[in-house]
């Protein structure tokens, strides 16, 4: 978990992703559509990607990607983010984390 905490430090939005995952791509577009500039870690392009993926599983991320952290807190995966979007709560969450200002 320390490895993940270090990757989250001082970043309002972090997405753990894989380049081949269509849901990861969708979530990146959704968050970017708000004007946020998320930090994206493509696990399949990182030498320690499998290690980070194991840490995400320990945190309860199933499936492991996309895993979205907003305000250094695990927000969830694609289902959770889409639910927040449908309930019109994602924008407010991004604002509170300092990822967007409007």
From TrEMBL:
<keyword id="KW-0963">Cytoplasm</keyword>
<dbReference type="InterPro" id="IPR036249">
    <property type="entry name" value="Thioredoxin-like_sf"/>
</dbReference>
<dbReference type="InterPro" id="IPR002109">
    <property type="entry name" value="Glutaredoxin"/>
</dbReference>
<dbReference type="Pfam" id="PF00462">
    <property type="entry name" value="Glutaredoxin"/>
</dbReference>
<dbReference type="InterPro" id="IPR011905">
    <property type="entry name" value="GlrX-like_pln_2"/>
</dbReference>
<dbReference type="InterPro" id="IPR014025">
    <property type="entry name" value="Glutaredoxin_subgr"/>
</dbReference>
<dbReference type="GO" id="GO:0005737">
    <property type="term" value="C:cytoplasm"/>
</dbReference>
<comment type="similarity">
    <text>Belongs to the glutaredoxin family. CC-type subfamily.</text>
</comment>
<feature type="domain" description="Glutaredoxin">
    <location>
        <begin position="13"/>
        <end position="74"/>
    </location>
</feature>
<keyword id="KW-0676">Redox-active center</keyword>
<protein>
    <recommendedName>
        <fullName>Glutaredoxin domain-containing protein</fullName>
    </recommendedName>
</protein>
């Amino acid at each position: 978990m320390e490895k993940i905490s270090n990757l989250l430090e001082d970043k309002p939005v972090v997405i753990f992703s894989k380049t081949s995952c269509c849901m990861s791509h969708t979530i990146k577009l959704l968050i970017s559509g708000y004007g946020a500039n998320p930090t994206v870690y493509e696990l399949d392009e990182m030498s320690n990607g499998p290690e980070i993926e194991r840490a995400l599983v320990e945190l309860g991320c199933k499936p492991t990607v996309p895993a979205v952290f907003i305000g250094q807190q695990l927000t969830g995966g694609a289902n959770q983010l889409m639910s927040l979007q449908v309930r019109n709560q994602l924008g407010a969450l991004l604002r509170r984390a300092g990822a967007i200002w409007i």
